[in-house]
């Protein structure tokens, strides 16, 4: 039985004051009881503050990106060990915004996933196709190659054993267009089967989150699908009530 996970990806949003209000609101809501795993992924500069605000709760902390390097002369970068050092349990990697705006390709994302795992972090590997790719009937081929960058190496496979996969169709991110529960389920089943072909136990056990315009009013029907084990939430993770409704839908 896979325990659902809901991860809030704040992206490049927030401030010290906003973080304070958001976490206070979420913690109040959690007093009513949430049985899913929940993680909050704020921008790097707020990790320590948010980590402090989450102290004593069951809510985990995560980063949104990390360097593939261990340490050294990489101006502007943040090392995996640093995320672990400030209390992160998770790190989002290969998000489509990183892939498209910062040129991260499958090989670089795979290196980051392996480096994050080596530092004791749980990688959240994002995969997903663009609208053009879907319309050209290349959805499975694109997602397969994003997965294979990890599945085809021993270190990649080992890193996924502590990790999570997030299927995020790029055309659904921040657009208000959600994949239908059946469209999402079909891809989640494809992903699970691809992982299982390499490692049957991992295929059965790995959590696969759906991301892309998940809101309070559509989360329950998505999470009801057999291979959807929670969500990676962007915009709605910045609103206390929406985020709490989504967390409650993931029981
Ligand atoms: P969204 O973002 O929920 O705002 O669509 C999801 C994501 O990018 O992880």
TrEMBL record:
Its EC number is 5.3.1.1. GO terms for biological process: gluconeogenesis; glyceraldehyde-3-phosphate biosynthetic process; glycerol catabolic process; glycolytic process. GO terms for molecular function: triose-phosphate isomerase activity. Pathway: Carbohydrate degradation; glycolysis; D-glyceraldehyde 3-phosphate from glycerone phosphate: step 1/1; Carbohydrate metabolism; erythritol degradation; Carbohydrate biosynthesis; gluconeogenesis. It comes from the Bacteria. The active site is at 95 (electrophile), 168 (proton acceptor). Keywords: Cytoplasm, Gluconeogenesis, Glycolysis, Isomerase. Pfam families: TIM. The keyword Isomerase applies. It is found in: Cytoplasm. SUPFAM superfamilies: Triosephosphate isomerase (TIM). PROSITE patterns: TIM_1, TIM_2. Involved in the gluconeogenesis. Catalyzes stereospecifically the conversion of dihydroxyacetone phosphate (DHAP) to D-glyceraldehyde-3-phosphate (G3P). Homodimer. Belongs to the triosephosphate isomerase family. This is Triosephosphate isomerase. It comes from Candidatus Tenderia electrophaga. The gene is tpiA.
């Amino acid at each position: 039985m896979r325990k659902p996970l809901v991860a809030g990806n704040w992206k490049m949003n927030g401030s010290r004051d906003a973080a304070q209000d958001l976490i206070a609101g979420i913690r109040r809501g959690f007093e009513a009881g949430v049985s899913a795993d929940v993680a909050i992924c704020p921008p790097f500069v707020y990790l320590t503050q948010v980590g402090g605000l989450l102290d004593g709760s069951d809510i985990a902390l995560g980063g949104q990106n990390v360097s593939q390097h261990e340490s050294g002369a990489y101006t502007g970068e943040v090392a995996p060990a640093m995320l672990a050092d400030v209390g992160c349990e998770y790190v989002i990697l290969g998000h489509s915004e990183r892939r498209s705006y910062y040129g991260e390709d499958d090989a670089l994302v795979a290196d980051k996933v392996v480096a994050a795992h080596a530092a004791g972090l749980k990688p959240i590997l994002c995969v997903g196709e663009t609208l053009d790719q879907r319309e050209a009937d290349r959805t499975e081929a694109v997602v397969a190659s994003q997965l294979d960058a990890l599945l085809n190496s021993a270190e990649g496979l080992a890193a996924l054993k502590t990790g999570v996969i997030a299927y995020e169709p790029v055309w659904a991110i921040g657009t208000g267009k959600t994949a239908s529960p059946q469209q999402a389920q079909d891809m989640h089943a494809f992903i699970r089967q691809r992982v299982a072909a390499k490692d049957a136990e991992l295929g059965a056990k790995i959590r696969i989150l759906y991301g892309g315009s998940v809101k309070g009013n559509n989360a329950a029907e998505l999470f009801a699908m057999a291979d959807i084990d929670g969500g990676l939430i962007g915009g709605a993770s910045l609103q206390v009530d929406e985020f709490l409704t989504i967390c409650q839908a993931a029981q």
